């Protein structure tokens, strides 16, 4: 099975990849919804990522900024799985790298920003909810350390949040369109480390299959797309991805 997948990857010059939390667990980043997930163990934590609550309650915002400041994910490093996907781009075969993750590790590993499509945004940028001004997380953390517990937009005074999609928020249309196109025009679609239960990740698989791409699911647990996949790979991502892309030149 893996030999066949390796052949498909070698034969393709238009590969689109979709990644979920499973690719980042080797970097020490917890899965939010798994058995050991943050929200599974502390349901109260989920309130911090509800958009309405965040906008309405300054205390929630102050707690959120402290969590962002103390979040170990800020210092996480890419792992062998991320680096394997860089090889696909270096070989000139990557059409798009769609991710559900907000940890920025694909770009940090070496994939280019033009190829990476962050469905749920990034935790390293901050957006004003009123005027849309964009700043970096580091700039805002510096303001917190200087005594502003809930730093407002310096342009308009609006409430700021990280540029991630919270519960109750729509995904950005432009980002979704890029993802759909990348799924539609590839000939191999690799779905890696995603349970494929959250939209739009799931329907992107359907788009790829309907457009005639080979679908490869790489995930430890079963997904709703295993039945229509051309191959299902269960081995640990950090071990199997380097094997699957070996010899790409
Ligand atoms: Zn503003």
Automatic annotation (TrEMBL):
Residue ranges of every copy of the Deacetylase sirtuin-type domain listed in the record: 1-249
Keyword Transferase: yes
Amino-acid positions noted as binding Zn(2+) in the UniProt annotation, renumbered to this chain: 128, 131, 153, 156
Signal peptide: none
Active site annotation, chain numbering: 120 (proton acceptor)
Pfam families from the UniProt entry: SIR2
EC number: 2.3.1.286
Regions that span the bilayer: none
Keyword Heme assigned: no
GO molecular function: NAD-dependent protein lysine deacetylase activity
UniProtKB keywords: Acyltransferase, Metal-binding, NAD, Transferase, Zinc
Protein name (Swiss-Prot/TrEMBL): protein acetyllysine N-acetyltransferase
Species annotation: Streptodolium elevatio
């Amino acid at each position: 099975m893996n030999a066949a997948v390796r052949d498909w990857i070698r034969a393709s010059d238009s590969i689109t990849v979709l990644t979920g939390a499973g690719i980042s667990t080797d970097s020490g980043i917890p899965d939010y919804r798994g058995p050991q997930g943050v929200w599974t163990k502390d349901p109260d934590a989920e309130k911090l990522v509800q958009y309405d609550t965040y906008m309405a309650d300054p205390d929630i915002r102050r707690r959120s900024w402290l969590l962002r400041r103390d979040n170990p994910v800020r210092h996480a490093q890419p792992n062998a799985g991320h680096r394997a996907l860089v090889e696909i781009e270096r070989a000139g075969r990557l059409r798009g790298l769609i991710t559900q993750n907000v940890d920025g590790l694909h770009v940090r590993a070496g994939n280019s920003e033009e190829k990476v499509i962050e469905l749920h945004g990034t935790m390293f940028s901050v957006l004003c909810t009123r005027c849309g001004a964009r700043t970096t997380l580091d700039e805002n953390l510096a303001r917190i350390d200087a005594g502003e517990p809930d730093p407002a937009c310096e342009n308009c005074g609006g409430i700021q949040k990280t540029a991630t999609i919270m519960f109750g928020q729509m995904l950005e249309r432009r980002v979704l369109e890029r993802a759909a196109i990348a799924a539609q025009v590839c000939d191999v679609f690799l779905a890696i480390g995603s349970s494929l239960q959250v939209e739009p990740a799931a329907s992107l698989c359907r788009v790829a299959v309907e457009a005639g791409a080979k679908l490869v699911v790489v995930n430890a647990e079963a997904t709703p797309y295993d039945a229509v996949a051309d191959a299902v790979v269960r081995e640990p991502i950090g071990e199997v991805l380097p094997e699957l892309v070996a010899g790409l030149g």
